[in-house]
Design brief:
- This protein is an all-alpha fold.
- It has one domain.
- It is 80% helix and 1% strand.
- The chain is built from 16 helices and two strands.
- Strands 1-2 form a two-stranded antiparallel ribbon.
- The chain is elongated and about 75 Å long.
- The N and C termini lie far apart (87 Å).
């Protein structure tokens, strides 16, 4: 009898403990947004204080302190929005968990920014405005401050509505708007702006086309073969080698600018050598990994999992090396103008500025990144390791092609364009197979237009939201920046 009572006591205690743990989970869930905002705010304050310690005398350092705070805010927004494009496909394909993706991205983004980030950055964001058109260094500082604030606010708004946008284009719009407000339309380098506008179309279309072509190749050469495993043993090492070659060329061309200047031909030769070496290493590994696998599509996903994780890490490193410098460019310009009293189109980025950028990205990714990672990885179209691999490969190849053609492209637009390319190819391929089966067999049953629309493999609502956000990024950031500059200028005078 005593044992029954003790058993009841334990079960009652278990229920009570479960209730407490449920309350704790609920409290943690409710408090999480506030905790995220709190941590972000602390980081922004610490960045400002660090700038005050590292930088010169009062009162000029107060401008740098404020700029460092806004630079930290911008870096957090890059982590929340831009980095999702590199990690989204791997998470959507279940090759990486959300936690694993965040850890890898934080490490490789920071490493890219600190080890290979360009030590000389065009603070007028690729020559968008002519410094000669600006009256004095004070006006220039307020223009860069306005650009920094407006681009950060715009990326924050885009993250809130769930639209992956280009932070580089946000900075471009911010610099252009502040430049127009400070020195008029004549100060803007319109041919450069024309090239950037062209990249809005070129980046996603090229990324999508390459991703779709890669998926078509995988379907034809591996998925629709009678012996899928034998086909995979033949072609998966080739695909891994192509990716290794593309990433090696990309990193040699873009990521190692700080160490050595490499031209496009040399980078392609480096890529070719790395690709050949990767093939020699990966062929026996793929053969060993494929032993005992069943002859079906599910087995193929295993062979693409590890290469996909490596590609996500390399994309993050390359993104850190490239885009962080663009984001902290206005902050570097403010530091330079405050320190030397002059301004030029190119300045060295102080190490502490790059550290703010690197750590800010990591914090932003950890605190606010999962929303956009889910959007890119699973809410636009359904991804598996083969499809996600095509997106990653297209991102690396597109950047190489764009660099060769001298076009400014956005890594965000390329990656999301790759996801769209894969999704639209799947729609086209499904329709084609449906028509073929209808032609060869008895007519298939009619599908109502509403049902046909429901079965689309790319979510049209997300597609329209993202494209609209891309189109208005530069003008919206420019308008905000011009307004902020006028307010700052009026406040000072």
């Amino acid at each position: 009898m005593a044992s029954d009572n003790s058993g009841n006591s334990w079960s009652t205690l278990d229920k009570d403990l479960n209730k407490i743990s449920n309350i704790e989970y609920a409290t943690a869930y409710v408090a999480k947004p506030m905790v995220g905002l709190g941590v972000a705010l602390v980081f922004i304050v610490v960045a400002g204080l660090a700038a005050g310690i590292f930088f010169g005398s009062f009162p000029s350092n107060m401008i740098v302190v404020a700029a460092a705070g806004f630079g930290a805010y911008m870096a957090i927004n890059i982590g929340a929005n831009d980095v999702a494009n590199n990690m989204g496909p791997a998470v959507g394909a279940n090759a990486l968990t959300m936690g694993g993706a965040i850890v890898i991205a934080a490490l490789f983004e920071s490493a890219g920014a600190l080890l290979a980030g360009g030590d000389v950055v065009s603070t007028i964001s690729k020559g968008i405005i002519d410094p000669a058109g600006i009256e004095n260094s004070q006006i220039f500082i307020w223009a860069m401050m306005a650009a920094l604030i407006s681009s950060a606010l715009w990326v924050n708004l885009a993250t809130f509505v769930g639209a992956p946008v280009s932070t580089t284009h946000s900075v471009v719009g911010g610099v252009m708007g502040a430049g127009i407000a400070a020195a008029g339309f004549a100060a803007v380098n319109w041919p450069t702006m024309g090239k950037i506008a062209a990249s809005w179309v070129i980046s996603p279309v090229l990324g999508g086309a390459i991703a779709a072509g890669c998926l078509a190749f995988i379907k034809a050469k591996i998925i629709y073969q009678e012996d899928k495993i034998a086909a995979a043993r033949r072609w998966v090492p080739v695909l891994i080698a192509i990716m290794a070659a593309a990433f090696s060329s990309y990193l040699a061309l873009k990521g190692l600018k700080r160490i050595v200047k490499i031209d496009i031909q040399t980078s392609l030769l480096i890529g070719l050598a790395c690709g050949a070496l990767t093939y020699v290493i990966s062929a026996p590994l793929v053969r060993r990994q494929s032993e005992g696998l069943e002859n079906r599509n599910k087995s193929l996903k295993v062979l693409f999992g590890i290469p996909l994780v490596f590609s996500a890490a390399l994309l993050s490193f390359a993104h850190g090396a490239n885009d962080v410098a663009n984001a902290v460019g206005p902050l570097a310009a403010i530091v330079h103008a405050s320190e030397f009293g002059d301004f030029s189109s190119k300045v060295a980025i102080p190490t502490w500025v790059m550290i703010i950028g690197a750590f800010g990205i990591s914090f932003g990714l950890f605190l606010f990144g999962p929303k956009l990672i889910r959007m890119v990885g699973s809410q636009i179209t359904k991804l598996n390791p083969m499809r996600a691999y095509c997106v990653a490969l297209s991102a690396a190849i597109t950047v190489i092609v764009a660099s060769w053609l001298g076009l400014p492209v956005s890594s965000t637009h390329i990656a999301v364009g790759g996801v769209f390319g894969v999704g639209f190819f799947r729609e086209w391929h499904a329709e084609r197979r449906l028509k073929k089966s209808a032609a060869t067999r008895a007519p298939a049953k009619r599908i109502a237009p509403e049902e046909r629309r429901r079965r689309k493999l790319v979510r049209r609502s997300h597609f329209m939201t993202i494209v609209a956000a891309w189109v208005i990024t530069v003008p919206a950031a420019a308008l905000m920046s011009g307004t902020i500059f006028l307010i700052l200028n009026a406040f000072i005078h």
